[in-house]
User: What shape does this take?
Amino acid sequence: MKIRDLCNLVNGTVLCGEQHLDSVVEYAFASDLMSDVLTVKTSEFILITGLANLQAIRTAEMSDTPFLLICRGKEVSEEMLDLASDNEILIISSSFSMFKCAGVLYSAGLKPIY
Amino acid sequence: MNLEFKVEGGDFTLAGNASSQIKKMLKQLNIDPKIVKRVVIALYEAEVNIVAHAYRGIITAEIDPQGVRLKLEDEGPGIPDIEKAMTPGFSTASEQVREMGFGAGMGLPNISENADDFRIESEVGKGTTLYINYNF
Assistant: This one.
């Protein structure tokens, strides 16, 4: 799925990392528990989370995934945007709940890792 | 090559900074991305552990053609029962740590799974040292 299409499906706003809009992502993992995200062996998935803090960005960085979707319109701080930009990580913000984001994207063909 | 970083306990804004620097260095050295990922996952979990549980710590990374050797030495409360601490799901983390997306008792098991060789030494009331090694 193209990131641009994914963003439209969740009625999202791209906060940084616009250079990834034409990239393609096949898998997603949704969690607020960063330790669980760090057990994922696949790279290049989109991380769907309601956790809006620096550790969500760090976890994406360490997991080698450049795509992050933050749900429920949680506030993304300047520090988070700076860290994401430094690491070329895309952040999409959606007002949808994590359940709705995951449901919409799963129905549209994005695959689960497990 | 030897790298050294200081880590402050309780400072979640900087948690991951050392891991990020070491990751960039490993990538620059053209090390197999699969190994880099295993190194940084273990390292980041261990760095978060210092921030979450200790007062301060020092991370050293030795990188040479044979492999990567990480040492994370902290001054902190220490671990009274290492076997228990290694049990998946066991955690003594604070509410603040849990709000950061950690503290579910997955850190040490995940470090162990991502390491070629992993060893913990700890003294209650003094601190904990983790040795995490990789062979190329």
The two ends of chain B are 15 Å apart (CA to CA).
